[in-house]
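[Automated response] Your request has been received and processed.

Submitted sequence:
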Amino acid sequence: MTEATDSPGSWAGGTSKSATSAPVDAATAGAADSRAKGGLRGTEPWGPKPTRITPARIGIYAFLVVAALFFLMPFYVMVITSLKPMSEIRLGNLMSLPDAPTVEAWVEAWAHACTGVDCNGIQVGLMNSFKILIPSVILSITLGAVNGYALSFWRPWGANFIFAVLLLGAFIPYQVYLYPLVMMLSYIGLYNSLPGIVAVHTIFGLPIMTLLFRNYYAGLPIDLFKAARIDGGSFWTIFFYLILPMSGPILVVATILQVTGIWNDFLFGLIFAGRESQPMTVLLNNVVNVTTGVREYNVNMAATILTALVPLFVYFISGRWFVRGIASGAVKG
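Generated structure:
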């Protein structure tokens, strides 16, 4: 019965369809063979290749070049001015290269520039800045990480209210807190001291650090925390052995933010550090704004570059890690 139902027309039609599709199949197989021979295995893009030079690409590069020149021009002026003697600076050729480069201004700024009544340069403030920077960065990041960990996973009573208060503290201007902090630190005997300025930087670093760590930890799988709890992990065990090893991107971002922010600080260093612990930024201000004698622009420029060397070093060394930290979700939310 099956053979009787096969008509000649249907047989002819089937033959013609196979014959029609044969060239198409052959072409497809040939293209696949050519891609396989090239090692692409069917992933080679089809269509014309995009042109390398387009108006949009030219516009993007032109904008980047102009932006780079705009931001690098002040640094260029600072460097060449610091290498010129005052006799050459008085000629008014701001953009010209020095005819007789000299590093006398750098030596003067480092060891002999007057910061008020003292003429010991800004080298005195270097060690003070590191004494302020290192404990402030460690304490603020450590406390921020613990706060973010607790608010993300353990959720204590009133966690949302505590987080809202911390966020509020991050957006209130610092000047509002100056007088109350002066009174509080004076009452406990920490005003105009190194521990006092470290405490101030730690306190003001907590809101932004808690925000960063909480948002980062909120993106981690909660199942890992639950599994650690089932296995009997305590608060600190889970933090040190599970959460902290996964905190590399956010730790890099937090360190860069705190190092640059604390090192470049002037207001807190001026008010809370005291005369014996003044950082380099305060001494730089005293060098630039000295009212006695002739204003030495080359010394001022050299002192400014010396003060900015640490943030520049941090950016050049760890800038790519900062970008990776942002891309991996360190500042999401």
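Summary generated for your ticket: Residues 123-154 form the longest helix (32 residues). Residues 2-37 form one domain.
If you did not submit this request, please reply to this message.
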